[in-house]
């Protein structure tokens, strides 16, 4: 008999739908208080933890965009770990655009994403972004940052 619980790939697919819709309340529902998200290029010392920290981390980069689109790609699961190869297309109000190739790795436990790491090229983004976006990053409230370095030692990071 099959359980009614969602499969990890279904959880991650629903998560991507919420993220690209920038549906912040729905997005928050995918994370528990100890969930961790970070971008590999900046490392686990700049992680967001829990729904509040993860939303703040995402909004830091995404709130200033005029458009934010997803190019779905390959999804592979190894038990509770889901790997997604995809692209994001960012457009700023001033007209600059960039397409970022990503590999995302998400660890799912029940209905929650407990760990999410994004692998992408920082220079591709930074070279394309307008000066106003760089300024926003430089002056943002970063009180939400969580140093997950010690926790990531158990995950091979």
Which architecture would the CATH scheme give at its second level? Answer: Roll
H-E order: HHEEHEEEEEHHH
Number of helices: 6
Secondary-structure class: alpha+beta
The domain tally reads 1
> How many whole angstroms does the radius of gyration measure?
15 Å
How far apart are the first and last residues' alpha carbons, in Å? 37 Å
What helical percentage do the residues reach?
25-40%
Shape: globular
Largest sheet: 7 strands, mixed
Estimate the strand proportion: 25-35%
Mean pLDDT: 94
How many E-type strands? 7
Uncertain regions: pLDDT < 50 for 5+ in a row? none
Defining key terms:
157 residues; alpha+beta; Nuclear Transport Factor 2, Chain: A; seven-stranded mixed β-sheet; 32% helix; globular
């Amino acid at each position: 008999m099959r359980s009614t619980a969602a499969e990890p790939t279904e959880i991650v697919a629903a998560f991507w739908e919420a993220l690209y819709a920038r549906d912040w309340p729905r997005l928050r529902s995918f994370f528990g208080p100890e969930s961790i998200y970070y971008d590999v290029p900046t490392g686990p010392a700049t992680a967001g933890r829990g729904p509040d920290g993860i939303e703040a981390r995402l909004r830091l980069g995404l709130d200033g965009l005029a458009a934010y689109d997803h190019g779905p790609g390959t999804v592979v699961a190894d038990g509770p770990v889901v790997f997604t190869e995809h692209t994001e297309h960012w457009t700023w109000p001033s007209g600059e655009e960039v397409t970022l190739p990503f590999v995302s790795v998400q660890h799912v436990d029940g209905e929650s994403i407990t760990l999410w790491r994004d692998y992408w090229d920082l220079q591709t983004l930074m070279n394309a972004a307008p000066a106003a976006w760089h300024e926003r990053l430089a002056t943002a409230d970063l009180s939400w940052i969580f140093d997950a370095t010690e926790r990531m030692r158990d995950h091979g990071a």
